[in-house]
Amino acid sequence: MISQQLLDDVVQRAEEGVLDDALIGRLRSAHPGVHFTWCMDDDIVVNAKPLVERPGFNLYLVNSSDHCSVLTNDCASASGIVLAEIIAD
Prior knowledge:
Shape: globular
Structural class: alpha+beta
Strand content: 25-35%
Number of helices: 2
Radius of gyration: 12 Å
Number of domains: 1
Distance between the termini: 35 Å
Helix content: 25-40%
Order of helices and strands: HHEEEEE
Oligomer: single chain
Largest sheet: 5 strands, mixed
């Protein structure tokens, strides 16, 4: 389960800094048990709707309860967060 408080913390940290491996490491340390991924938004190949949209990134949730991980917008079933960086053309 991903709480609103966790989402708010992740969004705030992502807005305040650079999306990079260091940020992902800090998020993993602050929120053990939650899987964090960083990628480019155009790497999201499915027509998924981000849960959170910001000028520099989109935030997606991941459900890994079954054999394969899938994107979801259901916080109750989510086990991870994807920060997908948007780079202007």
